[in-house]
Write a structure and sequence with these properties.
Radius of gyration: 36 Å
Order of helices and strands: HHHHHHHHEEEEEHEEEEH
Number of domains: 3
CATH topology of the largest domain: Protein Transport Mog1p, Chain A
Number of helices: 10
Oligomer: single chain
Strand content: 15-25%
CATH superfamily of the largest domain: Mog1/PsbP, alpha/beta/alpha sandwich
Shape: elongated
Structural class: alpha+beta
Largest sheet: 7 strands, antiparallel
Number of strands: 9
Helix content: 55-70%
Length: 336
């Protein structure tokens, strides 16, 4: 009698459990689809995972879970401006034949947005590259115009806001390089005249050991000459000139000017405002801790001659012409 009674109870429990499981599955599926409609793909994926727990191996729940995850990844990648990864996830959704129609529409729309932003960003970066190339060619006027176009694009597109610091840096470089251009190019003689009258305010320094010479402003103090006689230092409270020479091809008998140039570039941690290299000299100019640093190096197969000038960046108008005159009248060491 007991066995006959327990059997119906067991069947009843199984029916209740099955019914509850079915209700839980459908509830999770409905909520998941609802979240897809709200574009909350992360929460949608959570609901489809719950549905799979209720009905392990269910094809619909598995398919919707995969779609939700890919859409969530696509949105996240797009927000991080990882356009390639976003497009890859979207293409996976669109290639799935069981993708819900509403989800496919959203995927296509997002793909259009990603492609548009990707093209805009690519064009923006190409223009920035052009600005840098123009700066390298010393065409600061055109570089500035291109930079102004970039600023306008940035103002009208929030997705480009991450580029603002780099644009600010380029603007600063152009401003500094424009000021230094006259100094860095001895052939420009707007402020430099080789006249006796101008030399009246300068004093001639000639290095006895290496034979280089230069005119420096009268009134500058001079450090005691080093015992090896390789150069001299002249200075006041703001302005400083250091000139010296040394033998080349001592350690390596195949030295080139490019080797010295690359070594200098590696040692400079600040942004370089102006740089130029020729067969026998190069110039580097940059700002460090509020001071302009201008360095010129002359190279031949026996002697390398260097002069370095530093002064406050705020005093460019005062010391720029002086630096220009020194650069124009500097005579490097000949082979000795």
């Amino acid at each position: 009698m007991y066995k006959l009674i327990s059997l119906p109870l067991t069947l009843l429990c199984l029916f209740v459990l099955t019914s509850c499981s079915s209700d839980g599955y459908q509830d999770a599926m409905d909520k998941g689809i609802e979240k897809l409609g709200e574009r909350d793909y992360h929460q949608a994926a959570i609901q489809f995972e719950l549905a799979l727990k209720e009905k392990n191996g269910d094809e619909d729940a598995s398919s919707y879970l995969e779609q939700a995850n890919h859409m969530d990844e696509a949105v996240s990648a797009y927000e991080e401006k990882e356009y390639g990864a976003s497009l890859e996830s979207l293409n996976t959704v669109l290639a799935n034949k069981s993708t819900l129609k509403t989800l496919q529409t959203e995927a296509e729309k997002l793909k259009d947005d990603v492609l548009a932003d990707q093209e805009m960003t690519s064009s923006f970066e190409d223009t920035m590259k052009m600005v840098k190339e123009l700066m390298a060619k010393e065409n600061y006027s055109l570089a500035r115009k291109k930079l102004q176009l970039l600023e306008k694009s940035l103002e009208s597109n929030d997705s480009l806001s991450d580029y603002q610091p780099e644009l600010n840096k380029l603007t600063k470089q152009i401003d500094l390089a424009s000021k230094d251009q006259e100094v860095a190019q001895p052939e420009v003689k707007k402020t430099v005249e080789k006249s006796d009258k101008q030399h009246d305010t300068y004093q001639l320094y000639e290095n006895g050991r290496y034979g280089f010479s230069m005119y420096y402003p009268k009134g500058l103090r001079m450090d005691p000459p080093p015992t090896n006689g390789d150069g001299a230092r002249f200075y006041n409270e703001e302005f400083e000139i250091t000139a010296y020479a040394s033998h080349t091809n001592v350690i390596n008998d195949e030295e080139t000017i490019e080797m010295y140039y690359e070594d200098d570039l590696k040692s400079i941690t600040e942004e370089i405002a102006y740089q130029r290299i020729t067969e026998d000299w190069y110039v580097l100019s940059y700002e460090e801790n509020g001071r302009i640093i201008y360095k010129k190096f002359y190279f031949n197969d026996q002697v390398g001659t260097t002069f370095i000038i530093t002064y406050p960046a705020s005093e460019q108008e005062k010391y720029g012409p002086i630096t220009s005159h020194i650069a124009e009248t500097f005579v490097p060491s000949a082979n000795s």
